[in-house]
Amino acid sequence: MDRGERIDKDYLFNYIISDDEDSKMMVRETLKFMDEQPVMKIRGTENMSHEEFRKLTHDRVLKFLSMEQTDLYRLFSSLKGCFATSEIVGSHDTSFSVKMGVTTFLFSGAVMLLGTQQHIDKYIPLANDSKITGSFAMTERGHGSNVRYIETTAVYDKESQEFIINTPTESAEKMWIGNAMNCHYSAVFAQLIIDGKSEGPHCFVVPIRPIGAPPGPDTTLPGITTTDMGRKSGLNGVDNGWIRFDNVRVPRENLLNRLAEVSADGVYSSAYKNPTQRFNAVLAALTPTRVTVVCSGIGAMRTALYIAIKYSEQRRQFGPSQKPEMPIMDFTTHKTRLIPLLARSYGISFTRVYIADKWINMTPSTKREVEAVIAGLKAYATWTLNETLQTARECVGGVGFHAVNRIGILRQDLDIYCTFEGDNTVLLQQVAKDLVAQFAKEMARGGMFTGMLSFLGSQIWHKVKENVPSVFHSSSAAYFRTPEFQRDALSYREGKLLETVSLRLMHKVRRLKMDPFHAWNDCLDHLTQLSRCHIERVILEQFHDAVEHCAHPGTKRVLKDLCDLYALSTLQSCSSWFLEHGYFASGDARRVRENVLELCNKLRPHLTDLVDAFHLPRVCVDVPILDNVHSWSSARAKM
Q1: What is the DSSP letter of 39?
Q2: What's the CA gap between 387 and 56, in Å, rounded?
Q3: Maximum CA extent, the chain
């Protein structure tokens, strides 16, 4: 097939990773480590026993943490490098990726982001030297998403100047705690109570086992009980467990006190006087860990797409009479299932790079917008991840169900990504809440839309306010592939959803006198649809920006086609909405569908380059179906 001007794969790899040289160096070091260290080999581990696999996962984490580029001071001083490295780690075994995340980004991240210098000086050198590993204890039996109402208590004792950490009820037991059976310390969230008054959830460093103690339930310190949760549907290299505290005393200094302090005589102080603002600040400080989930998901998505596309280009089935069988990648149903997902993966990658830069350069005026986009991107990316894994598994047929070929295992392991580090549906509510609040504020000021709502320029807002929008769409294929058409369509949809859901909420609260909670609950389907549309538009804008600034001509042309495919396949998925609201005529929906098919055909010759540009570690794609499928498929084609 004629590829025309070729993609520069090295250029494209660097383009989707980071614009930062230190990040690129960290990624190169990680790739080298993955392929050179025997402990990182994946092939052959699928038949390990539960305990063998757990030990291997723990050994991998310790070996990885011994590298220079995983120095925790370096990681947290170079968040761009941290996020880029997380993508490479995510392409490997997910148990390793998650356990790495628990020990570095969750435990050490809590110390670095919620603690002060005394905590950093005490715990980070020990973690850097692999003398300790940590866990992160937030989720409880009774409360997962609703962290504000966790039941674990930390009662301050003025006489001893200690906090007494306790599990008062069964529902307060910490649950799903990764590394629970190995950790020496845990970052424990508990209700801080002074003189009978709760100041809300705060984070404490609690010793779980003595330094140097072997793993297991019998090596914990007095008052602490860890219970192994056993085998799960996936991630069986991670030792998840329950943790109970029976009046465990920790020094006052073990409160991570960047945002709040308790004096020796029990006086509570914080720069945040409003408890809600203080609680939100605690969670916001941990937002980078949510970005690492997106990064890890991107890595796994790339692995699945690489295996599925490479296999499908070689695997032959059916064909014209008396002719050789053809590669299954040439069937329309394969192209229209896999290539739009590949396009989406690139769009998510560019948005991840964008959001990393926005987080690092965040100001008080952009904070709410950035946190909302991160929440929405985590939901969208991990839903896309699971869709990709299922589609990839189906597209390679029965061999995708074989554990050694990785896709089936990844699908089992990564299913949990939709509900950990924030339940996706709940995260979309956070996005919607910020959009609706900003909309009400801007409308009160006369509709001068800024920040999150800057997409609502006068032209789009005018169309939103019309019952039937005054739009005319050209019938040419080129028109549907213009950034203006794509951006305007998604902006109109988001604006219309925002306007109508705001009116619904107002009607329920003001006219029907409904309680705001129940009014919100009544509109959740509408609100989550709005949030998803918001993230789809943000991704499109970052994709357009990436195409515009791409410096390599051949790569730029292919990225433009990928971007068009992302935009039009997104519009195709909600074409009924556009028809219902009069933004599309029936012919428009048909032309969108025709463009999607044409773009899939146009991109078909570039698939090898597009997945090779991921530069995945060899160990991550060392699977039997890519060893010998070409030889036996060729033999069958001659039969």
Answers
A1: G
A2: 29
A3: 91
Predicted confidence band of residue 135 (pLDDT cuts 50, 70, 90): very high
Q: Write out pLDDT tens, residues 52-110.
A: 999 999 999 999 988 876 788 888 888 888 899 999 999 999 999 999 999 888 999 99
Q: Are strands 316-317 and 197-207 parallel, antiparallel or unpaired?
A: unpaired
Does pTM top 0.90 for this prediction?
yes
d(CA 539, CA 554): 22
- Measured distance CA(471)–CA(584) in Å, rounded: 8
More confident residue, 459 or 20: 20
Q: pLDDT of 282-303, one tens digit each?
A: 888 778 888 999 999 999 999 9
In angstroms, the CA 256 to CA 186 distance is 12
Average pLDDT, the chain: 91
What is the pLDDT, as a whole number, of residue 448? 62
pLDDT value of position 447: 62
Tokens matching residue 87: 């993508």
DSSP one-letter string for 199-258: EEEEEEEEE-S-TTPPSSTTSPPTTEEEEE----SS-TTS--EEEEESSEEEEGGGB--S
Q: Which residues have CB under 8 Å from 52's CB, separation 6+?
A: none
Q: How far apart are CA 238 and CA 467, in angstroms?
A: 54
SS3 state at 162: strand
Distance CA 91, CA 304 (A): 9
Q: Which residues contact 35 (CB under 8 A, 6 or more apart)?
A: 617, 618, 619
For residue 510, the one-letter residue type is R
First and final C-alpha spacing in the chain? 24
Q: Which residues pair with 260 in a beta bridge?
A: 270
- pLDDT at site 236: 96
**pLDDT tens string 477-509:** 889 999 999 999 999 999 999 999 999 999 999
Q: Which of 342, 377, 345 is nearest to 358 (CA)?
A: 377
Residues 6+ apart with CB under 8 A from 315: 327, 328, 396, 397, 629, 633
Radius of gyration of the chain (CA): 26
Distance of CA 277 to the CA centre of its chain: 25
3-state SS class at 464: helix
Tell the residue number behind the tokens 């890890």, with chain if given: 296
Q: How far apart are CA 200 and CA 69, in angstroms?
A: 37
Whole-angstrom distance, CA of residue 550 vs CA of residue 11: 9
Q: Is 413 helix (H, G, I), strand (E, B) or coil?
A: helix
Higher-confidence position of 422 and 527: 527
CA 580 and chain centroid, separation: 32
The answer to whether 611 and 33 have CB atoms below 8 angstroms apart is no
Mean pLDDT of 543-554: 96
In 3-state terms, what secondary structure has residue 184? Answer: coil
Q: Which residues of 408-440 are buried (b: 16+ CB within 10 A; e: fewer)?
A: bbbbbbbbbbbebbbebeebbbbbbbbbbebbe
Q: Is 63 helix (H, G, I), strand (E, B) or coil?
A: helix
d(CA 465, CA 516): 25
d(CA 188, CA 165): 9
- CA separation for the pair 228, 288 (Å, rounded): 28
Q: Kindly give the interhelix angle for 79-90 and 332-360, rounded to the nearest 10 degrees.
A: 150
